[in-house]
Amino acid sequence: MTRARHIPDEGDFEGEGRPGSFRLIPGERAGEYEFAYICPCGCGAEGWLLVGHGHKPMGRRASWKWNGSTSAPTLEPSINHVGHWHGWLRDGVWKEV
Ligand SMILES: [Zn+2]
After folding, report:
1. CA 22 – CA 8 distance, rounded (Å)
2. 2 CA distance to ligand 1 middle (Å)
3. Are 81 and 41 in contact (CB under 8 A)?
């Protein structure tokens, strides 16, 4: 179980590389963001997810519905960081399945 920590500053995010931390970058469309995160498994890899604030962006690529919270984020559906981590981000906690 790993806490999701919001790190808005890109430099801090890249520098710390703490498992489960994340930042949000505004996407091409209103209400859509790139959810950049450090893999919660501890390998240090960075992943990117297309998320929508309160909705699941449709159509172009895999996407997730984000509850809009940075302190206790929830994403649906589950996240599969291919090869080494598969689980859920719910209420600010990464939980492996
Ligand atoms: Zn990993």
Report:
1. 8
2. 12
3. yes
Question: Which amino acid, residue 66?
Answer: W
Q: How far is the CA of 80 from the centre of ligand 1 (A)?
A: 10
Place of tokens 């430099």: 11
Map out the domains of the chain as residue ranges: 2-96
Task: Give the residue from 77, 82, 73, 66 showing the smallest Cα distance to 20.
Answer: 73
Q: Cα(18) to centroid of ligand 1, in Å?
A: 11
Band (pLDDT 50/70/90 cuts) for residue 50 is: very high
Q: Is the pLDDT assigned to residue 60 strictly greater than 80?
A: no
Other CB atoms within 10 A of residue 49 CB: 19
In the predicted model, is pLDDT for residue 9 greater than 80?
A: yes
> What pLDDT is stored for residue 63 in this prediction?
97
Exposure of 28 in the CB half-sphere (CA atoms within 13 A): 3
Q: How far is the CA of 31 from the centre of ligand 1 (A)?
A: 28
